[in-house]
Amino acid sequence: MMNLLQYEWKDPWFFILLGIIPWLAYHIVKKQKTNPFSLDFSKPENFGQQYSWKIYFVKAVPFMYLLALAFIIIAMARPQSALREEQIKGEGISIMLTMDLSSSMLSQDFDPNRLEASKKVAIDFVQKRKYDKIGIVGFSGEGYTQCPLTTDRFILTQLLNQMHCGVLEDGTAIGLGLATAINRLKDDSTKSKVIILLTDGVNNAGNITPQLAAEIAMSYGIKIYSIGVGTNGEAYSPIGRNVNGDFVFGMAPVNIDENLLHEISTKTGGKYYRATSIEELKTIYNEIDLLEKTKLDIKIYKRYTEEFRPFIVFAFIILLLAWFIKNYFVLSKL
């Protein structure tokens, strides 16, 4: 309730009145310094040394009045909660993010490695696509669905962050990864369907070839945008595992089957990209974002709920407490 930025204000000009509160506070402090212990007692015998500490409670009373006044002014400004209803005409795009989770994605030619950099850029991409259905597929030696098609950006972000290498049998089954994504898209009612395939290797596992997967994608009208991620030459990469199961790193050549990725992309009406740095990867996702746009007719309706009542209640409670302190708590006998 106290986060004022969450409200819309019907009469915001009442906030001008808040300017008198510092002026009043200044004069109260000045008066209290001039006559710091000036109190009115109904009976002189009620005043004694044992009550001197209660003077500070009485000194706080004028400031409590000011706080109550501030709450009343805020209530007069008419805080409102806006309940939005959106009507969307048309439809967005269904996108499956298909990410390589083979051990080579831990190579450190990206900061901190290829997988973490790819996840970060993918999350930024997901946040831009407000009205699209997006799903996630992971693959290495086999493929699996990390998230089915959804418009829930929070869930997509969480599940992207949870992806890591070593969950599946190692390898690079590009065809199997594509087939898993196609299976999620083929029965979707959206007219425009896209797979964004991100990999850093050569197809070396799985019982479905990338070429066959591309043929199936083409038959369902699914476009494949392929991204080969990795520097040119060599990179500091996993080259094995020790007895504890931890990866052992060393310099290894970067091998990406660019001809294959170019072939399956162009066959389905998509495009192949090569990213040798995180900056290039961001540029690629931005280009795909611009290429795959659907115009939507959006009408937004707003309903408002008045939220001034809690501020009035706070003001009343503070005034009641101030009255109690002044009339009962301080001046009463022990």
How does this structure look, described?
It is a single chain. This protein has 334 residues and is an alpha/beta fold. It folds into two domains: 9-81 and 307-329; 88-297, Rossmann fold (3-Layer(aba) Sandwich), CATH 3.40.50. Helices cover 38% and strands 24% of the residues. Helix 1 (20-34) packs antiparallel against helix 2 and helix 3 (114-128) runs antiparallel to helix 4. It is elongated, with a radius of gyration of 33 Å. It starts with 7 loop residues before the first strand and ends in a 5-residue tail after the last helix.
Mean pLDDT reading: 86
- CATH topology category name of the largest domain: Rossmann fold
Domain count: 2
How many H/I helices? 9
The biggest beta sheet reads: 6 strands, mixed
Helix content range: 25-40%
CA radius of gyration: 33 Å
| Strand arrangement in the largest pleated sheet | 5-4-3-6-7-10
In terms of structural class, how would the helical and strand content be classed? alpha/beta
> SSE order in H/E notation?
EHHEEHEEHHEHEEEHEHEH
Amount of beta strand:
15-25%
Total beta strands: 11
CA(first)-CA(last) distance: 38 Å
Ranges where pLDDT stays below 50 over 5 or more residues in a row are 47-51
CATH architecture term of the largest domain:
3-Layer(aba) Sandwich
SSE layout:
Elements: E1 8-9, H1 20-34, H2 55-76, E2 79-89, E3 94-100, H3 114-128, E4 133-139, E5 143-150, H4 153-161, H5 174-185, E6 193-199, H6 210-219, E7 222-229, E8 234-241, E9 247-253, H7 258-267, E10 271-275, H8 278-291, E11 297-306, H9 309-329
Parallel strand pairs: 3-4, 3-6, 6-7, 7-10
Antiparallel strand pairs: 1-2, 2-11, 4-5, 8-9
Helix pairs in contact: 1-2, 2-9, 3-4, 3-8, 5-6, 6-7
